[in-house]
Amino acid sequence: MKKEFLHNDSETFLAQWLEGELSDNELKNLVSEDDFTAYLKLRKGVDVAEKLNAPVGDTFAKIQDKIDSKKQKVRPLFANWTIGIAASIVLLFGLFSIFGDKTITTETGFGESKSIVLLDGTEVLLNAKSKITYDEDDWNKKRSLQLEGEAYFKVAKGKTFIVETDNGSVTVFGTQFNVNSTEDYFDVVCYEGKVGVKTTKYNHILLPNDAVRRVNGYPSQVSMHLDKKPTWIDGESTFRSVPLRYVIKALEDQYDITFDTKAINTKDIFTGSFPHNNFNIALKTVFETLNINYNEKENRNIKLRYKE
């Protein structure tokens, strides 16, 4: 069992450790486990602060000066240093929220789109209810991110750029493309350059205007796509021979609404578009073409049924 020390003793050990007079193992045997963990974070934060051109540099410099002065007078030094240590640890925990965890996540809500510029200058535009996640520390070694939902990419030239999804991965070097990956729906369109698409069973190389789609686990299909950019960027979702269930999901994501689909066949095929800024027109555009009635039940839940 570790020996219990007075608070001032712990402070003395901390100063000696920061000065290099105590090793990590020696300090670990002299203080509590919680204190040791906190001290490790403190030291890491001091190292980080020395590399930053920020006002916190003066704070850490003062701490270091007080540590140096312990050689001549240990007890007086720590009489006022306790507050400084506490304040420094609070400051460092703030730094760790930025520097400690390098996983970056950006996501959008219902009906929201968001533009992001990545570390290499790559531009990403996220559609509604979508998310990207990547490791900032490893970015220079491997440009790779995880996507849930739909995003349009304008990739800066450089090393291989990889978009990972639950349905497959997309690999490029510098190009413009769109990826939509939700549940068992996977759609990739190349607008510029060359795109490699890999699923569990198939590999595809897409050139400009090429598209590949896999729905409900069926084999992926390659087709031509003549649009210059995704229509959703300009506020309109477009579908070409897509099962209705995916169109309904897109409506829910854009308008924060739910649909009761028990009375219809969600495998019906839909071709068309709906706007993102007019809910009534969106409903008419989608459901009237399929001869489906739509009535709001309660709490923004709409019941769908075929017209008699």
Low-confidence spans: 1-7, 48-57, 70-83, 89-99
What would CATH call the architecture of the largest domain?
Sandwich
Q: How far apart lie the N and C ends?
A: 80 Å
The H-and-E topology, N to C, reads as HHHHHEEEEEEEEEEEEEEHEEHEE
**Broad structural category:** alpha+beta
Number of helices: 7
What's the pLDDT, averaged over the residues? Answer: 80
Q: Predict the CATH topology of the largest domain.
A: Jelly Rolls
Radius of gyration: 28 Å
Largest beta sheet, briefly?
A: 13 strands, mixed
Shape annotation: elongated
Question: How many beta strands in the DSSP annotation?
Answer: 18
Task: Report the CATH C-level class of the largest domain.
Answer: Mainly Beta
| Number of self-contained structural domains | 3
Helix % is: 25-40%
Strand content: 25-35%
Question: Keywords for this structure?
Answer:
308 residues; alpha+beta; Jelly Rolls; Phage tail protein beta-alpha-beta fold; 3-stranded mixed beta sheet; 7 helices; 18 strands
List the helices and strands and how they pair.
Blueprint: H1 7-19, H2 24-30, H3 33-51, H4 56-68, H5 74-99, E1 103-107, E2 114-117, E3 123-126, E4 131-135, E5 143-154, E6 161-164, E7 169-172, E8 176-182, E9 185-192, E10 195-198, E11 203-206, E12 210-215, E13 221-224, E14 236-243, H6 244-255, E15 258-263, E16 269-275, H7 279-287, E17 292-298, E18 301-306
Parallel strand pairs: 5-6, 15-18
Antiparallel strand pairs: 1-4, 2-3, 3-5, 4-5, 5-8, 6-7, 7-10, 8-9, 9-12, 10-11, 12-13, 14-16, 17-18
Helix pairs in contact: 3-5, 4-5
